[in-house]
Amino acid sequence: MRRFSFDQLSHGRSAVHCAPAGLKLAMALGLLLSVVAWRGPAVWFWVIPPILLAVLFAARVPLRAILFRLLLLQPFILGVALLALTGPGGWRAAMMLIARCTLCLAIMLTLATTTPFWRLVGVLRVLHVPSLLVTVLSLMYRYLFLLVEEAHRLRRARASRTLRPATRWNHWRASASTIGHLFIRASDRAERVYDAMRARGWA
Amino acid sequence: MHIPDTMLDAKTAAATGLLAAAGLGYALRRCRLDLPQKRIPLLGLTAAFVFAAQMINFPVPGGTSGHLIGSTLVAILLGPSAAVVVMACVLIVQCFLFADGGVTALGANTFNMAIVAMVAGYMVYRLLLGRSDALARRVLAAVVAGWAATMAAAFFCSAELAISGVASWRAILHAMMWWHMLIGVGEGLITALALSALVAARPDLTAVEAPAGFRALSIQGLLVCLAVGALISPWASSKPDGLDRTAQDLNIESPEAAAHIPAPAPDYKMPGFRSEAVATAIAGGVGTLLVFGVGLLAARILAGRKRSVISAAAAP
Fold it and tell me: Does the distance separating the beta carbons of B56 and A175 come in below 8 Å?
C-alpha cells in the first residue's frame, strides 16, 4: 500500500500543511513554469532544490518517500532520454532532459505531500471549474483508497484459495475476473452512495 | 505513456491543451444533459475503479508485468462521453496526487489517453459489434478495440514528442509503436476477459447502449481531425507538391492563372501571423474545418436522401 502511505503524508499539521492551498498551488505552478520556460543556463538547478528542501524540512516530510517516488517515475523519462541520445543534441540534451523532468517531478511531489488533495479540489471549485468535474473528482478521491484496498483483498483471497502457481493464461483469466468483480462492487457501492447522498439532501 | 513536464514545447502543449479542454467541455455538457442524476456517483466510483484496476498486474513473457489502462473498458461500460470525464479525472488525480504525468502536459495526456484512445477504441468496438450483442462478438470486438485504442494513443503521444523536437520522428515512432503493439494486445485481452467476466456475473451492468448520435460522433471525429490538421501541417514537407513541381519543371506555370481568384490563405499560410509555424498550423486547422464541414454536409444530404427514398418506397 505504498500509494496509500504516500497520500498520508499530505495530512500533516505543520505550518506548511496549513498554508492556503491556492497559494501553494500557485507557487508550485510558478516554479514549474519557470523550469519549463527557461532554456538558458541551468540557474534553476541551484535555486529550486534548496527551496524544495526547505519546504519539505519545514513540513517534516521524510525525504525517503520523495526519493522513492522520483525513482518510480523514471522509466518513461529514461526511455525518452535514450531516444534523445540519437538526436542532434546528443548526450548533453539527454542529461538536460532527465534533469529538468526530475526537477519538475520534485516540485509536484513536494506540492502533493504538503497539500491534501481535497483542498486542491476546493481551489478548483473556487476557480469555477464545471461542477460535474469537481463532484466526480471529489467522489473519486473519497473512494480511491477504499477500492484499492478492495482490489488487494480480492487478490489476497484468490491467492489464499490457489495452492499451485497458476499457468499464465489462468492467471490472466483470474486477474481479469478480479477486475470484473471490482467493477461490480464499485457500481453497487455507487448505488448506495447515491441513496446516502439523496438522504442528506443532495439534489 | 504519461508525458512528464518539460518534454513538450509551448505550441504543442497549448494546442493539445485547447483540444483537450474542448473535448472535455463537450463531454461534460453531454453528461449534464443525458446522464440521469443517479449515475453521477457511478462516474466517481468508476474513476476510482480504473485507478484500483490499474494496480492489478498481469504477468507478461520476459518476467515483467503490465496493467490495464482502461479507457476502452470504461467506454464500453458507461458510454463515450462519461468515459472521457472518468478518464480525465483519473489523469488529473494521477498528475496532482502522484506526479504521474506533468501539469503542463496534462492537456496532451488527457487528449491522448482520455479522448483519442476513447474515440478510437469505442468506434472500433461499435463498428465490429454492428447490431448484434452476442457475447463472442462483443469479446472479439473488445480485443481489437483495446488494441486500437492503445495504438492511437501511442501514435499521438509520439507525434507530440516528435513535434516538440525531443528526438526524431523515426526514432520515436519506431520505439513507441513497437512497444505499444505488444502492450495493446495485453490491453485488448484484459479488456475482453474483464468484460466477459462481468457479463457472466452481472449481465444487467453491461447492457449494450444505443450508439452515439450523429452529432456526438461528428464532433469527436472533428476533434481528432483538427488535431491532425493543426499539429502535423507545420511539419509537413515544405517542398512543392507533385503537381506544382511538374508545372515548374515543364515551365507551364502561369502566374496570371493564379491571380484570377485571390486565395484566402496562399501556400497554406494564414496571412497576418508572424510565426510561420503558427500561420501554417492555423491554416491547417481552418482547412481541416472547411473540408470536414463539406464532408459533413455531404454525409447529411446523402444520408437524408437515402432515408427519404426508403420512406417514399415504404409509403403506400
Answer: yes
